[in-house]
């Protein structure tokens, strides 16, 4: 009978210890869980997580630079966050060509962010080529929405 209360106490202490450690990790600011859902929404809607590219191009338009300028401000406001820039293409072209183009697009965004004061260690790039379209279809409107770079908080 004496073992049961001791076992209950040990389980309770272990649960409190695990919860405390989990809360400490979340408050360190070393991952996106330290950012509120509202802040993540702000990044996507007010700052802008997407920039768009012209056909067969990785050059940044004025609109893309304006969005990236807002991203720079956000990144400076949250210096502990890390980001991934995803490069995407429309479905025209080969898989290999679009993977390379998506990488060039993501890298042009990263270079712009770094030139404007973001630590390059905070930003990684990945290309999905034409494998993850935002919009299905064979229209110029669909193609234009798929030629994009998306910045994601890691």
UniProtKB/TrEMBL annotation:
Annotated OmpA-like domain residues: 40-154
Highest taxon of source: Bacteria
Subcellular location per the Swiss-Prot or TrEMBL entry: Cell outer membrane
One Pfam family hit: OmpA
Membrane topology, record value: Lipid-anchor
UniProt keyword list: Cell cycle, Cell division, Cell outer membrane, Lipoprotein, Membrane, Palmitate, Signal
Principal place of residence: membrane
Membership in a protein family: Belongs to the Pal lipoprotein family.
Quaternary context: The Tol-Pal system is composed of five core proteins: the inner membrane proteins TolA, TolQ and TolR, the periplasmic protein TolB and the outer membrane protein Pal. They form a network linking the inner and outer membranes and the peptidoglycan layer.
Function: Part of the Tol-Pal system, which plays a role in outer membrane invagination during cell division and is important for maintaining outer membrane integrity.
Protein name: Peptidoglycan-associated lipoprotein
Lineage start: Bacteria, Pseudomonadati, Pseudomonadota, Alphaproteobacteria, Rickettsiales
Name of the gene this protein is made from: pal
């Amino acid at each position: 009978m004496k073992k049961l209360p001791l076992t209950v106490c040990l389980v309770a202490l272990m649960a409190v210890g695990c919860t405390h450690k989990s809360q400490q990790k979340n408050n360190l600011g070393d991952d996106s869980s330290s950012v509120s859902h509202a802040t993540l929404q702000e990044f996507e809607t007010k700052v802008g997580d997407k920039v768009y590219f012209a056909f067969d191009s990785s050059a940044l338009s004025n609109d893309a630079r304006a969005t990236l300028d807002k991203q720079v401000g956000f990144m400076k406001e949250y210096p502990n966050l890390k980001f991934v820039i995803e490069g995407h293409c429309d479905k025209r072209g080969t898989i290999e060509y679009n993977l390379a183009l998506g990488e060039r697009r993501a890298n042009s965004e990263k270079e712009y962010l770094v030139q404007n004061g973001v630590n390059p260690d905070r930003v990684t790039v990945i290309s999905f080529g034409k494998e993850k379209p935002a919009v299905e279809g064979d229209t110029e409107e669909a193609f234009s929405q798929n030629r994009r770079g998306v910045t994601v908080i890691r």
